[in-house]
Amino acid sequence: MDLNKTTLSEQIYAILRSDILTGKIPLGEKLTLKNLKNRFEVSSTPIREALTRLTEDGLAEYYSNVGVNVISLSEKDLIELYQFMGDLDRLAILYSAVWPNQTQICREAELVLAKTQLIEEKKELDETDIPLWIEYSDRFHLLFYDYCQNSRLTHAAEKLRSQLTIFSNLYETQSTPQHRINEMHHRIYDAYRTGDYQTAGDLMKAHLEDSLKYALEHLK
Question: What is the pLDDT of residue 24?
Fold first, then answer.
């Protein structure tokens, strides 16, 4: 594989991270130096650096005398993940409520919702529509972290969101979950724009609990 020699570690990390998040590399799979060296045609050093970053992201785990494996998630893990992510997203909404320019937040939320709505209403989707829909759907959640003014909250959510994305990338490709997610996002926004931040936060938590059902179906 032809890689830019100045950023080997960064490129390998980005490729492996994408492969894990999209399911090309399945949960629990072992990431061996030998196989990765053959795949990328590079030395061990940039690969080790990339694997270290994946473990820091919570997407891989290092086992002594075994090596590095993509994370495995049980039903209990998924329940805890979605419950806690719901709590964090709810807090992000409540913290964003004190941002001095609420019009700015609402304008961005409206733009994201409009883009997901346009894709959902298309009669025929092309191969770029689904990744775009997922990107905009994720952006709806992330925009509240941009305005929450709490770096620790944002940092805590980043690692967990990476794990959650493995499953959301599976069920968000289907029309029924897409419609339900879009509906919940509109309800959250409607409460937020009217200043009912408590309800918006509660709806966000309920939204994550609702999405958990789709994630558990794919775990089975």
Answer: 93
Alpha-carbon dihedral sign for residues 92, 97, 99, 104: positive
* Residue of 214, 130, 119 whose CA lies nearest to 176: 214
| Nearest of 97, 101, 16 to residue 53 by alpha carbon | 16
Distances in whole angstroms, Cα of residue 210 to Cα of each of 42, 133, 184: 43, 18, 9
Strands 60-63 and 30-31: unpaired
Which residue has tokens 């795949």?
Answer: 39
**Distance of CA 103 to CAs 29, 85, 96, 99, Å?**
45, 26, 12, 10
Question: CA–CA separation, 44 vs 173, rounded Å?
Answer: 36
Residue-wise pLDDT for 83-131, tens only, equals 999 999 999 999 999 999 999 999 999 999 999 999 888 877 777 888 8
Q: Which two tokens stand for residue 167?
A: 């499953």
Residue 106 phi/psi, 5-degree rounding, is -65, -40
Task: Name all contacts of 202-210 with Cβ < 8 Å and 24+ positions apart.
Answer: 202/90, 204/86, 204/89, 204/90, 204/93, 204/141, 205/86, 205/87, 205/89, 205/90, 206/86, 207/86, 207/89, 207/181, 208/82, 208/83, 208/85, 208/86, 208/89, 209/82, 209/83, 209/86, 210/180, 210/184
End-to-end Cα distance, the chain:
35
Helix (H) or strand (E) holding 148: none
Q: Are 58 and 71 in contact (CB under 8 A)?
A: yes
Question: What are the tens digits of pLDDT across the range 50-69?
Answer: 999 999 999 999 887 678 99
> 47 by DSSP, 3-state: which?
helix
